[in-house]
Amino acid sequence: MQSAFRRGAREGLRDFLPLSVGLVPWGIVTGIAMRSIGLTELESLGMNLLVYAGTAQLGTLPLIAAGAPLWLIMLTALALNLRFVIFSASIAPMFAGRSLSERLASSYLLVDGVYAICADKALKSDDVPWRWGYFIAPSIFNWVMWQLFVAFGVFGADFVPRDWSLEFMVTIALMVMVLPMVRTRPMLVAALAGGLGAVLLRGLPLRLGVVAGIVVGIAAGFIAERWQQRGRAA
Fold it and tell me: What is the pLDDT of residues 210-232, one digit of tens each?
């Protein structure tokens, strides 16, 4: 049992390692961004530990800086993280028989990159210890990397030149993480519709363009999935 867990952990880390490179610029920029809106080092590190969701962190920072109401900040974070409801439901069979504490820890550690790389392969295995190691090892590795590089950005924010434009590197990192998940036509439709919607609706008050784009993407993906199912039935 222990050997199967260790083998799964090694394979999970090996498969996830190439994607983890994107955590470096993303984490650093997130740390810098938190400091740039006026958060202290302690507040930035605390937010990073509690939220642990780069997209939600970056998406809510402009609202925090603008003094938006708390309900809007929470709604935006919730909308940006809705995908994790789908992710967790799809990988729930992986955690059959695990303790409540292990499942809670797994829910906190779940991130896009680990899901994109590890979910399919883990769900195809019937070896319970192996798939647990395959999921938890890269998840912990991702958490450690994220905390380290965000902290690097937080404490190094005052020394980074403003003209480096690291935000563009974050966009590239996000694209690298999203592309492996776009494997079906409905997912492609949802991604394109959501992205286009967010761009076209960016002028909405209170920066609601991102939330509106997410709604558009979900609706478009749902409709595309229904059409695909009807086509197969016909």
Answer: 778 878 888 888 888 888 888 77
